[in-house]
Design a protein that fits this description.
- The protein is globular.
- About 15% of the residues are buried.
- By secondary structure, it is an alpha+beta fold.
- It has three helices and five strands; from the N terminus they run H-E-E-H-H-E-E-E.
- It is about 25% helix and about 25% strand.
- The chain has one domain: Nuclear Transport Factor 2, Chain: A (Roll).
- The chain has a three-stranded antiparallel sheet, covered by helices on one side. Strands 1-2 form a two-stranded antiparallel sheet.
Length: about 140
C-alpha cells in the first residue's frame, strides 16, 4: 500500500485486536487497522450487553434481550432497530445505510444480520454479516 493510500485510510483508525492477543514473533500487542478495525468494532458492539462496560454502560446492542423470543416479523423489526441505534450511538466512523434481518434457520434459531454501511469521509460502501442465535446452542444428545 503506498503512502497516499495509507493517509487516505488513517481516519478509519487502529486499535487493539479482539480478542486481545500478542505476536509470538516480537511479543507485541496485535492491532487492527482501517477496515478490519471497524469490522471488529461492529462485532464488539453486537456482542456487548448494555452495562457490561463500566466506563461506557451505554455501549452495546442489547441483542441479548431477544434470546428465546419467538421468531416473528415484530422481533425482526425490533432487532433491525436495535442494531441501527447501537451503531449510530457507538460507531461514529460509519453511516448505516440498511440493516437486513433474516431468520436463516428456524430450528437452531440462527438470525443473520447484514449491515450495509459506508465510511463517513470517503462514502465507500461495505457490508458486515453478523450471525446471531435466538435459541440456546447445545451439543447434548437426548
Amino acid at each position: 500500500m503506498d503512502n497516499q493510500s495509507i493517509r487516505e485510510k488513517e481516519f478509519l483508525g487502529s486499535g487493539w485486536a479482539f480478542p486481545v492477543t500478542f505476536s509470538e514473533a516480537n511479543n507485541r500487542l496485535n492491532v487492527t487497522k482501517y477496515e478490519d478495525n471497524i469490522n471488529q468494532m461492529i462485532d464488539i458492539i453486537m456482542k456487548t450487553t448494555f452495562g457490561e462496560r463500566s466506563f461506557a454502560p451505554q455501549m452495546g446492542s442489547g441483542l441479548q434481550q431477544f434470546f428465546f423470543r419467538e421468531m416473528t416479523a415484530t422481533v425482526k423489526g425490533e432487532i433491525r432497530e436495535a442494531v441501527r441505534i447501537a451503531l449510530l450511538d457507538n460507531e461514529p466512523r460509519i453511516k448505516v445505510l440498511e440493516v437486513l434481518v433474516v431468520f436463516a434457520d428456524m430450528t437452531t434459531g440462527l438470525v443473520e444480520i447484514t449491515i450495509n454501511y459506508e465510511y463517513n469521509q470517503t462514502n465507500t460502501r461495505h457490508n458486515y454479516v453478523y450471525p446471531f442465535y435466538l435459541k440456546e446452542g447445545t451439543n447434548l444428545k437426548e
